Amino acid sequence: MKRKKRSRLLCLMAASILAAGCVAGALMPGGTAHAVELDGMCSLTVTVEPKNMEGGPVEMPEVALDLYKVADAVPVEGYDAYSFSTEGESQAAYAGLALNDAASREDWQELAQQAAEIALGGARQPDATVEDLQNDRLTAADLTTGLYLVVARGKGLTAEEYVFRTAESVEGREAAAESLLTTVAYSESYVFSYVPQLISLPTKEPDEEGNIMPSNGGDWDYGPSVVLKPEVQERFAALAIEKTLASFQAGSPATFVFSIEASLDGRTVYSDVASLTFDGPGSKGVLLAAEFPEGAEGRYALQQARIPVGAQVTVTEIYSGTVYEPEGGQAVRSFTASAAKPSEAGFENNTVSFRNVYDGTGKNGGSVTNQFSYSTDSGWSWTAVTGPNASIE
To answer: What is the DSSP track for 166-232?
Structure first.
């Protein structure tokens, strides 16, 4: 009876294997080789692995690690085990979490989300932060025993920049059916997404299948090592096309059409058109992006686009109306797409500008109605209907 009771007790305090896309490891107090010691210090080492997508470069994320102590470890009298306590002043915010009642993987995943909402949503300060990557590892030392929320996030980013909920989209990623708090880090070409997880210190070694069970042999581990297992997706660039119409023929709108072609590693990754219509002289722009920053709508027309960072982009003005011409005959711009956002220094690299003037012929400028079609053999083509009342479609 006593043995069964001990196993039940240990199961209630056990946290599950951390899921894919999170820190890979396991959490469970228990063991028989040596009694657990809770007055010493622990450490946690997290390995960061370079990743790539099919056909893409292998890159390391710029990642840092934050640990938030959720609960203290409290010995269970008569057993080689411990439970969790949130009675300490610094853990009081987590007092509502049913830490000692969790009995399944799903329970611990839900508790990790609740703890993350408290820690990150409440702008709490982490108990330990590691930003110095050494030999592809981040090591947090001098940790008191207890339960920690492990948060991998972008180095140098603010919480507003690295915290997302999957009911939202991250750089063009489709939203999930249910909201899930995630954090992100970036490399030049990819977005690395992590789910915050709970880990207890000390812990036990997993079995051959990666599971921690009360019957597992071995000693308590006061310095476990785990591996970050993120979800990796392409990072998309933003592109601005700016047009200045220096002179204008009154009487009808003037429409300008641009083709945008992007290639990466010899394959076409984006091909589309954009247009701007003027009813007088001045400047306008269109922003192509997977996600639009706040305030962009007031400055640009917005067009959804997924252009991978690092792609070679060529923008060509393919229609300038009947009475306007590019100044200096320059109608083609090319560049390598960077990760800079419209509000950041360096976005000028992703901005192309065209300037047009009235050619003085006196012809009706007109606008144009376009029906666009694309062929891999001939590229973009359209049927145009000109006239003073025509419009872009």
So the answer is: TTS-STTPPPPSS--EEEEEE-SSEEEEE--EEEEESB----TTS---TT--S--BSS-EEEE--EE
Residue 164 bridge partners (DSSP): 182
Rg over CA atoms, the chain: 28
Which pTM value belongs to this model? Answer: 0.72
- The first and second tokens of residue 256, run together, are 């300008």
| pLDDT bucket at 19, cuts 50 / 70 / 90 | very low
DSSP 264-295: ETTEEEEEEEEEEEESSSEEEEEEEESS--TT
| Terminal CA-CA length for the chain | 77
> Does residue 310 sit in helix, strand or coil?
coil
Chain centroid to CA 223: how far?
29
Q: Among candidates 331, 393, 328, 390, which has minimal Cα distance to 365?
A: 390
For residue 318, the tally of other CB atoms under 10 A from its CB is 16
**Amino acid sitting at position 140:** A
Residues 31 and 216: beta-carbon distance below 8 Å: yes
The pair of three-digit structure tokens given for residue 168, joined into one six-digit string: 């939202």
pLDDT tens for residues 238-295? 999 999 999 888 878 899 999 999 998 889 999 999 999 999 999 999 999 988 887 7
The two tokens of residue 162 are: 């690295």
CA distances 259 to 37, 70, 267, 369, 372, Å, are 67, 53, 17, 16, 11
In the block, residue with structure tokens 């890159």: 59
At position 293, the amino acid (one-letter code) is P
